Amino acid sequence: MFATQTFLNLPHKRQQQIINTAVEEFALKEYESASLSAIVQKLALAKGSFYRYFKNKEHLYRYLLSYVVDFRLEKEKEWLQPPAKDFFALLTERFKAEIRFDLAYPGFSSFLHNVAQEKNSDELGNIQEYLTASMMKPLIPAIEEQIKLGHIRKDIPATLMAFQVLQVQQNLYNYLAFVYKMDSRKNVRRKKKAFSLPEEDIQQAAAGFALLLKNGLLAPGKKK
Description:
Blueprint: H1 5-8, H2 12-28, H3 36-43, H4 47-50, H5 57-79, H6 87-104, H7 106-117, H8 127-136, H9 139-148, H10 158-179, H11 184-190, H12 199-217
Helix pairs in contact: 2-3, 2-7, 5-6, 5-7, 6-7, 6-10, 6-12, 7-8, 9-10, 10-12
């Protein structure tokens, strides 16, 4: 929608070069201060050629956001273990998949973090709302199913629970970044992974955050 057919007709490798270069710019800077000129220069493109791919900076930004969100959801789906009967075991797996994504794709992760911090603007509107709704979309049906099965409480709307799960998921990364003193922007500049964590540390942190949610979401009468 936001990319022209000319861009979509480019070879996959060239598309990825443009996407990765543009994501890096928006991962390091807020939307207003990000520069199309810097992106074009890194790509060794004439500015006129760039406008054959995207109408303006806003269209580029919105295309990147849609691309990165879809890419992240697909990757997390790949990394999830077979569906668990226990909802909180499933949450633990989701949290682990989210951390794996952040570790493997620091540029994409930092870009999404920057989007989450953007203020409402005349140009972008409430871009945070789009990001939140996109990330909540796969959570809501899973929560509704668990409510029907009687595994989690039914007196709180599924949308509210999904929102809370998403906030906890985001805070898990912030927690690990704090504990391991990670500088995400420095890693993006160096084109390095965020940090390396033993699988058991990821498991422990993910299980801990899922447990914190469990006491609030568990249906009355269920064993803790």
